[in-house]
Design brief:
The structure is a homodimer.
Chain A: E1 5-7, E2 26-31, H1 33-36, E3 40-46, E4 52-54, E5 72-80, E6 87-88, H2 90-93, E7 103-107, E8 125-126, H3 128-137, E9 141-144, H4 158-165, E10 170-172, E11 182-190, E12 198-206
Parallel strand pairs in A: 5-7, 6-8, 7-9, 9-10
Antiparallel strand pairs in A: 1-12, 2-3, 4-10, 4-12, 5-11, 11-12
């Protein structure tokens, strides 16, 4: 079998853009090959840094934590939503061929923001109607190419609550810049941090 | 396709066992659903906490860092080495049917140590002869069911240096307790931390 593997994860590094208000990613080298014969490092980070998965516990008091979810493995559909200006609606998603159990990945104009050094407020997000459509389709997970799937200006975060309440984990911070829309197998593996509301993940698409 | 997915990653939590000398895993909740309407957390950890992958930069001054390695995807062979008392030798590995490009995973009596709250010095490790055999077989990666593949008492760490020098990443801290020896597909995905000598990983076996 000759599988093509596409890495759709953002690199983690000091100075990377993070969601407004989140702490910076930090990496501390505590010993080096040159001086100590071995390189050792420690990291400190928000669980929402870079490519990450939100679990129901992010917004729901009794919601499942990230270690209680199965790894996100299955059929992924990368949708071309590059023409959406502000919010992805149910209308935008209808006719995209999403099936029950699919992982829906939104490739939007956000991809242009990923190269920036700072967080941008004006990213394309999912509307509540779009979230309702995903719940009705019974997708396995939903992912987007920026640090949140929901508008920065949303106060009560109904999109997160609806998706997570329906048991649909949210993959945020995907790098889909090199990915052609279409069908792939996805392996999105967040760190199994016990009791955590989210975790950074490495995510690949395969076909 | 009905794939069976086996998670072989250790959970990350405060109080988990870590390699002697490494800092404890820490998780800090900075806001909660009950009080703030949203749960947010930060983690700080050694890059060698739990299930993780060592890159060449761990021991080699000009070695590749974890973000420079491709995700570890391919054919994995879980070897039953439960009868090995101290060191896995080349003799132990010969006749195991390892092929070029395989990911060799060692299931040993170490699995009994994984439930303990503290680090144990006396784990089963790979001998230099065993490492030489893996290099000669041109395996893609090597993994073991404890926090190091090399004896705690090895001073110059020749096993790490030989494997990493040959471009063979090392997967440490695998939980193989529920895994029957045999052939699987592996997806071992470390966080892409830029310039880092290692990274925590989520690792699954599929068949």
């Amino acid at each position: 079998v000759n599988l093509e593997v596409f890495d759709v994860s953002l690199p983690l590094f000091e100075g990377m853009a993070v969601y407004e208000g989140d702490p910076q990613f930090r990496l501390k080298r505590t010993s080096s090959v040159e001086e100590d014969g071995v390189c050792l490092s420690e990291a400190s980070l928000s669980l929402h840094a870079g490519t990450h998965v939100d679990a129901p516990a992010h917004y729901l008091a009794d919601g499942r934590s990230i270690d209680e979810l199965p790894p996100i493995v299955g059929r992924a559909k990368v949708l071309d939503l590059s023409s959406v200006k502000s919010e992805i609606t149910g209308e935008d998603l209808r006719g995209c061929g999403l099936r029950k159990g699919d992982v829906a990945l939104f490739k939007t104009s956000n991809s242009q923001l990923l190269g920036l050094k700072t967080f941008s407020h004006g990213f394309v997000s999912l509307s509540l109607g779009g979230a309702e459509y995903l719940v009705s389709r019974e997708v396995k997970a939903a992912g987007i190419d920026y640090f949140s799937i929901e508008s920065f200006h949303s106060e009560r975060k109904p999109v997160h609550k609806l998706l997570l309440g329906a048991g649909i984990p949210i993959i945020e911070g995907l790098d889909l810049r090199k990915i052609s829309p279409g069908v792939y197998s996805i392996f999105c593996l967040p760190l199994p941090i016990r009791g955590a509301e989210a975790a950074p993940a490495r995510c690949i698409l395969v076909r």
